[in-house]
Structures are given as C-alpha cells and as structure tokens.
Task: inverse folding
C-alpha cells in the first residue's frame, strides 16, 4: 500500500504517515484507540481516515518519547485526517479508471486481431481463389480464340487484384498479422516498406515484448508515418527504437512542415491516450517549418 510521509519538525514529531487500507464503517473504528494495532512501541497515535462513513485509511503520528500534542497540533492532524479521505478516494478512482482503460484497449486489440484473422482466412482466401479462376478462364478464352472475352475477364481479374490489395492494406491497418507472428522489428520494417515517404528504420528490440506494448509502439509509428505523408509533406522519415532497462523508447522524426498540434485532430491526442493506458508518455517537438519529432517512452519488463 502507498504511504505518504510528512516531516513535522514544528510539532517535534518524528513523522506522520497516511496509509489506505480496506474500508470499514466509521462505527467500527471511531478513534485512535480503535486502530491501536498501527501504533509503534506506544509512541504512535492513530486517527482513522473516514470518507462517506467508511474508514479508508489511517493517519499515524509517531512522536518522541515524552512528547504530547498541543491543542492546535491536534486540530491540525485531525484536519489532515478529515481531508485525506477524499484524496485516498480520488486516487482509488483514478486507479480504477486506468484499469478500465487498459481493459478497453486490450479488448479493442483482441477484436482487431480477430477481424484481421477473419479477413485473412476468409475473404482474402476466397478472393485469391476467384482471381486464379478468372486467370484460368482468360487462358481458355484465348485458346478458344475469343480475344474479346479474354480481355474482359483479364480486366475483371486486374480489378479483383486491386481490391484484394486494398483489403490486405485494410487488414494490416486493423492489426498486422506480422506483428503477432514476428514481433515489433519485423512489423515496423513492413510499415516502412509500405510508406509513400522514404523511411529509415533503426530499431533494436531483439526480443518479444508484451502484446499491449508491441501494439502500442506499432500504432505510434503507424500514426506518425501517416501524419508525415498526409499532413507534413515530409520527404524523409527516421524511426529509431531502443529497448532500455525498464522501458522501450520509440522516436519518429520527419523533415516536413512541422506545426503538429495534439488539439487539431492529427491523431496525436489518440496516441497520448493510448500510451497512458500502458503508463507511457508522448513528447511532441514540432516547430513550424522545422519538421516533427515524436518520442514515446513505454515502461516494460
């Protein structure tokens, strides 16, 4: 459990500690003597932290031997205990919101993976089979001397091939199979190959990371490359990734027009929100006329 320690030289106390614990009704713990188990060698006084009638924690004041609280000091500690309940409650709610956000993102990623698999194993395979059938029909039509039919079927096969290519790109955008199968290094290399803007990739990860970490890093780079091509008019992009002790660092820099703003719908706010679900951070450096650099720091084991 987290503890807050406050030095208090003015009242001569060694320390004040405020720690949350499982809630009980206020009737079960109405004063310092009810929480005597938290006292240390008889030198500590304990006040329950009550919020909405439930004990949410305790304020423990450890003092030097022979020292006693003056009335103003006692009121100060009681005021602290009265305010600490709201703080502990807010911290708990924030933790619950973060956990809920992580569950939502995990569910979205799983849905993306499932949809990508369905497209790959279902629609794409049927379209590939259809393209092969049309190719065979084209060959038979030419053998029969029906050049008009052969030309029409070949045109239909080309359109089908274009639709299949678009479907594959859509599937990659939903959740790339290569990320699941081969990891972050290969997935980022694949992103660079498909980018309309030349990309230099310098990524050193060399091992698989947790799925949510890999997916977050992938979508950071994907969004950055999309912005560089569509909004920044960049001619070159550099992607650098390093796995350091305790965190993954991803940096994407372009030589575009700069001026990227999280508040103008560029997708950066979405990246910030996504990174927050894995306790990551996003730094944006984008002076107008001097390109954009995005740096994501993602904690990982």
Result:
């Amino acid at each position: 459990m987290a503890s807050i320690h406050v030095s208090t030289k003015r009242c001569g106390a060694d320390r004040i500690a405020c720690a949350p614990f499982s809630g009980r009704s206020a009737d079960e713990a109405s004063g310092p003597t009810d929480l005597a188990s938290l006292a240390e060698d008889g030198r500590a006084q304990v006040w329950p932290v009550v919020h909405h009638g439930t004990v949410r924690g305790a304020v423990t004041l450890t003092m030097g031997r022979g020292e006693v609280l003056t009335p103003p000091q006692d009121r100060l500690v009681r005021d602290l205990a009265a305010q600490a309940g709201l703080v502990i409650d807010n911290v708990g709610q924030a933790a619950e919101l973060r956990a809920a956000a992580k569950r939502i993102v995990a569910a979205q990623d799983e849905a993306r993976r499932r949809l990508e698999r369905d497209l790959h194993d279902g629609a794409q395979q049927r379209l590939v089979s259809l393209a092969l059938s049309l190719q065979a029909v084209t060959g038979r039509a030419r053998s029969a001397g029906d050049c008009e039919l052969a030309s029409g079927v070949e045109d239909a096969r080309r359109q089908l091939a274009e639709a299949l290519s678009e479907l594959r790109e859509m599937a990659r955008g939903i959740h790339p199979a290569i990320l699941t199968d081969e990891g972050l290094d290969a997935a980022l290399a694949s992103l660079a190959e498909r980018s309309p803007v030349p990309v230099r990739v310098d990524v050193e990860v060399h091992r698989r990371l947790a799925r949510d970490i890999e997916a977050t890093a992938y979508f950071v780079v994907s969004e950055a490359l999309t912005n560089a091509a569509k909004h920044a008019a960049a001619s070159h992009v550099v992607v650098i990734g390093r796995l350091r002790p305790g965190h993954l660092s991803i940096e994407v820099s372009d030589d575009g027009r700069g001026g990227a703003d999280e508040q103008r719908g560029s997708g950066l706010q979405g990246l910030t929100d996504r990174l927050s679900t894995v306790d990551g951070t996003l730094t944006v450096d984008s002076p107008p006329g001097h390109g954009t650099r995005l740096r994501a720091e993602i904690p990982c084991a």
User: Anything to note?
Assistant: Residues 178-299 form a domain with the Heat Shock Protein 90 fold (CATH 3.30.565.10). The chain has three domains: 4-99, 102-174, 178-299. The helical segments are 71-143, 147-174, 177-182, 184-194, 211-230, 268-276.
